[in-house]
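This protein record is not my work; I was only asked to verify it. Where you disagree with what is written, explain briefly why. This is what I was given:
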Amino acid sequence: MKKNLYTADATATGGRSGHVRSSDSVIDMDMSVPEGLGGRKGATNPEQLFAAGYASCFQQALIVIAGRENVKLSPKARCSAR
């Protein structure tokens, strides 16, 4: 079995309108349901964090595959998740 190179840990309290913190405290923020559903304006919600993480990981996968195929991606390339 391969050794894990990295593990991310985070803890949530209070559900969608609670608080999240990563084990290294880089992420340490209150959460809210989306404003359109009655949440606070300007607050982060779990869906935004999930979409950001997914887009970042998916784009990195594309960068790795492109590199293996000797394909140059534009530095302005973007990946969005919905």
About this structure: The radius of gyration is 17 Å. The first strand starts at residue 10 and ends at 13. Helices lie at 46-68.
